[in-house]
Amino acid sequence: MPFRNLHGVIAPVILPMAPDGAVDARSLECHLRHLFDAGIHGLWMNGTTGEFHALDVAERAVAVRVAAEVAAGRAPVVAHVGDTATRLAIRHARAAVDAGADQVSVIAPYFAELGREELRDHYRRIAEAVGFPILAYHMPRLTKFALTADCVVRLAQEGVLAGIKDSDGDMAWFRRLVRRSAAAGSELRCFTGGSAISDLSLFVGASGVTSSLANLTPRHLVALYDAARAGDWARARQMQDQLDDLLEAMRLARRAPTLSTVVSTYKFVLASLGHIDADHAAEPLALLDGDERQRLTSTVVPMVRELESAVRAKERGDDT
Question: Residue 284: is the preceding peptide bond cis (ω within 30°)?
């Protein structure tokens, strides 16, 4: 059965790979243990930064199995199972549940242009196949299909959706969804994937955040979430400002804002910190060039260390 109360910082896990693109299970385990040591509240496997587009059913299941073994029931493991067709997504979903996933998330089928009822049926069929309400993954800039708040709430009322991860970054849309869900008496769990709007999303009622920055600064994000839960919005905003500075440094270090440079940036920084073994990515995603690596080494890596060290110091009582 899925966790009923998804909340907090759910890390959308970067997937370490071998040179041939296979899942590096040992390195993944090391990274996941680091995330749990930092206090994250759950794992989101095989998402965009987990390079799901390059993984077959067995490879996605390997990643989920490693996550389930590390989590050991103490926190939820969400497995993204989206694909281009319903039957393919169902195949991924069943394999994920068999591998130990507590919940599955589903992006709208990409490539094919769908109508709204077709998409609703897509979610219904997957929820029926796994036997519990699932999570929607909303990323219209890649799927070319934008969900409406009313559609999401309707599926929640039907018992099809338990929650949603919104990676579109439209705060007006997100706030509308939270309000309409509450007005309908729904228990829909609303998460933001927008790294630059974590504090704003929590302020308008998000259940938690699924920022890819949780891979680099998990302690910082957990502390931001805790501050928001405590109503300390000044501290939450200050911590978000620091994350915004980190995001800007990462942007300036890359030659272009493509998926390959984003994924490779995270992998290079994690490898530099010793959290994963190498920064291999699935082809055709390209690795960073020498100049990009140098800029990340001189700017981003020290910033990550400083942010995480500051939270550790505060936890020890060294920083008042």
Answer: yes
What is the amino acid identity at position 279? D
Asked if residues 163 and 132 have their Cβ atoms less than 8 Å apart, the reply is no
Q: How far is CA 257 from CA 5, 240, 241, in A?
A: 34, 21, 21
Q: Which of 137, 225, 266, 267 is catalytic?
A: 137
What SS3 state is found at 178? Answer: helix
Find all residues with CB under 8 Å of 163, minimum gap 6, and list them: 6, 135, 136, 188, 189, 190, 191, 207
Sequential pLDDT tens for the chain (320 residues): 456 679 999 999 999 999 999 999 999 999 999 999 999 999 999 999 999 999 999 999 999 999 999 999 999 999 999 999 999 999 999 999 999 999 999 999 988 888 889 999 999 999 999 999 999 999 998 888 889 999 999 999 999 999 999 999 999 999 999 999 999 999 999 999 999 999 999 999 999 999 999 999 999 999 999 999 999 999 999 999 999 999 999 999 988 777 778 999 999 999 999 999 999 999 998 889 999 999 999 999 999 999 999 999 988 887 54
Q: Give helix then strand counts, H and E, for the chain.
A: 13, 8
**165 catalytic residue (yes or no):** yes
| Residues counted in the chain | 320
Active site residue 137: yes
The architecture that CATH gives domain 8-230 is Alpha-Beta Barrel (3.20)
Task: Record the tokens describing residue 162, joined without a space.
Answer: 């338990």
Catalytic option among 123, 165, 266, 267: 165
> Rounded CA gap, 206 and 260, in Å?
29
pTM value?
0.94
Burial tier of 183 (Cβ tally within 10 Å: 0-12, 13-18, 19+): exposed
Domain ranges of the chain: 8-230
Say if residues 52 and 82 touch (Cβ distance below 8 Å). yes
What distances in angstroms separate CA 57 from CA 100, 235, 263, 316, one per listed residue?
Answer: 14, 42, 21, 43
